[in-house]
Amino acid sequence: MSGKLTSSRFYVTASTFNTHRVLKIDRTDPTTLGVTEDGTIYDDSQLDLLLRMVQDGNKSQGGLEKVLEFQ
Q: The whole model's pTM is what?
């Protein structure tokens, strides 16, 4: 598992061999915590593409930062 952070969202990726799931935690509203489990099961290349798109879409706010990796 690993955690990646933008200025307003936290993404947790969980992996089993070459399949990956994503949990999105939205921190844009200070009064509520939005948590969404992405129903898509990603392969390696799909997860890489998703994270690159998040990185590119958030470049003006600092991009995507890896904050934690654990097993």
A: 0.73
